[in-house]
Write a structure and sequence with these properties.
CATH topology of the largest domain: Rossmann fold
Distance between the termini: 85 Å
CATH superfamily of the largest domain: P-loop containing nucleotide triphosphate hydrolases
Strand content: 15-25%
Number of helices: 17
Largest sheet: 6 strands, mixed
Number of strands: 14
Number of domains: 2
Radius of gyration: 27 Å
Bound molecules: adenosine-5'-triphosphate
CATH architecture of the largest domain: 3-Layer(aba) Sandwich
């Protein structure tokens, strides 16, 4: 381990120890996933099972297009339509609403506002996620702890735009750690990082797992050094599980199917080649040996053991396609308070954040000033002396209407146009019940059967409509002015 990693490790372990997570074991059984409906339906996952234990860092490994992200999205509750199967937390069927509070999902790309410093970013997130019930001093100490945990204390006053890829990734992880999730899902946390930063990031994840959390990460082509940090390996090929168990047992397991990993060869590279079919059609053998993830390959005994079996009776949960078990009386629905921070706190915190980003983004602010000034001049020329005459009362009304339109569109347009880019951020925040627990952007698009291209077309349509309203308004007004003269 190089000096860089050791520094991160020694910084991280005691600090993470203070952020203890409840032990939640995640078990899933017979997960099927079909993308799209009707003619375009495509089966992606074929009855996968598995178990991810708390205190373990699990890697989901597999070639591109094998179904890693699909599986993780289903387990995280991000994807529900088209998915079937049973998902349990500590042997009890997953309740999606509760599970979203217990888990966090960190996407591959870091969607961070570049103008804020680490300090400001974490404090803003703490104010929103921890809410008013946690005192200001407690919030501050939690922020300090998270920064120390992630080794970000030294760069606390650096703006996000100037951070390295590794620091951005650690910040994304830190933001999710604030509300102390018990299960952490990470989609390709090492993508775009150099080997040293990747090791540092995975070492951090292992320390987080050691504090009693379940940490699951999809990973692409890990080096053998990186692989050593993981406790548990779950290998996916063509939507099925071909191995589940400790890293050290992978090579002996492959030997049972007459697949000999060459000496000094990275087992991860070898198993990827196997998964891609370079060693013949061995996938059915491997899938049936491990029973598509129902079994865990044991390192010590060189054998497989059966996962704890979930109870059989089930009905379909209305929020998901995943089945849930019915036992005894159904408890009365409790009203769950979705926002930790009050409405006023949210408004105040977000206004402050917006003000900071606007103030620091001088270029955008100048462009906005110029745009409004030019628009103001245009409106002025169009309605010049319109209000002097009582007969022009209609012009006054139309000017007020026009101004309202400008204010409305000018303020909503940036949000509307950047919505697809922001979608992942919203999605993540949605999962953590941060700001918008009931507004699921992906669901919103699915509901209206919209993909991103149709979304863009609707934005273009709105723009055309806006321009048409303005042009007709202008001609109608000049015609009216002429007829009045
Ligand atoms: N909505 C969809 N419609 C059609 N095909 C889909 C859809 N979603 C996923 N797929 C397909 O399912 C397969 C698995 O996708 P997934 O993103 O889970 O793979 P992956 O293992 O995570 O790949 P990568 O490592 O490249 O991200 C891919 O072939 C993908 O094209």
């Amino acid at each position: 381990m190089d000096a860089h990693i050791e520094m991160a490790g020694s910084d991280v372990v005691p600090a993470v120890g203070n952020l203890i997570g409840a032990s939640l074991h995640l078990t899933f059984r017979d997960i099927y996933y079909t993308a799209n409906k009707g003619k375009n339906a495509r089966k992606i996952l074929h009855g996968m099972s598995g178990t991810f234990k708390s205190g373990h860092l699990t890697a989901i490994l597999g070639p591109s297009g094998a179904g890693k992200s699909s599986l993780m999205n289903i387990l995280a509750g991000l994807r529900t339509s088209g998915a079937e199967g049973q998902i349990q937390v500590n042997g009890v069927d997953r309740k999606l609403k509760k599970f979203r509070k217990q888990s966090a999902y960190i996407t591959q790309e870091d969607h961070l506002l570049s103008n804020l410093t680490i300090d400001e970013y974490i404090m803003t997130a703490a104010n929103l996620k921890l809410g008013n019930k946690v005192s200001s001093s407690e919030r501050k100490s939690k922020v300090e702890l998270v920064m120390k945990t992630l080794g970000l204390t030294h760069s606390r006053h650096t703006q996000i735009g100037s951070l390295s890829g590794g620091e951005c990734k650690r910040l994304s992880i830190g933001l999710e750690l604030l509300n102390n999730p018990d299960i952490l899902f990470l989609d390709e946390p090492t993508s775009g990082l150099d080997s040293s930063s990747s090791l540092q990031c995975v070492a951090l994840l292992r320390d987080i797992a050691r504090s009693g959390r379940t940490v699951v990460a999809t990973i692409h082509q890990p080096s053998s050094r990186l692989l050593d940090y993981f406790d548990h390996l779950y290998i996916v090929a063509s939507g099925m599980c071909i191995y589940q168990g400790p890293i050290g047992s992978l090579v002996p397991y492959l030997q049972t199917a007459n697949l000999e990993c060459p000496s000094y060869h990275n087992p991860a590279d070898f198993v990827m080649d196997v998964a891609c079919g370079e060693y013949g059609d061995v996938l059915p053998v491997l899938v049936s040996t491990i029973e598509n993830g129902r079994l865990v390959y044991q390192e010590i005994y060189g054998s497989t053991s059966v996962m704890p079996s979930p109870p059989p009776k089930s009905r379909t949960d209305d929020a998901t396609d995943v089945t849930i078990t019915v036992t005894g009386n159904i408890p009365k629905k409790k009203k769950i308070k979705t926002y930790p921070a009050s409405f006023h706190t949210q408004v105040a915190v977000l206004l402050e954040r917006t003000w900071r980003t606007m103030w620091r983004d001088k270029m955008l602010t100048k462009v906005r000033f110029v745009t409004h000034f030019v628009l103001g001049l245009l409106v002025d020329t169009m309605y010049w002396l319109g209000g002097d005459d009582a007969a022009s009362i209609l012009n006054n009304a139309s000017m007020l209407f026009f101004n309202l339109l400008v204010i409305l569109f000018a303020s909503t347009m940036p949000t509307v146009v950047t919505f697809p880019m922001e979608r992942n951020v919203l999605l993540r925040e949605h999962l953590n019940h941060c700001y918008c627990p009931n507004r699921h952007p992906q669901k919103f698009l699915e509901h209206f059967n919209m993909d991103e291209s149709s979304y863009y077309w609707s934005v273009v349509g709105m723009l055309v409509f806006f321009i048409a309203v303005r042009v007709t308004g202008y001609f109608a007004l000049s015609f009216k002015l002429k007829s009045m003269r």
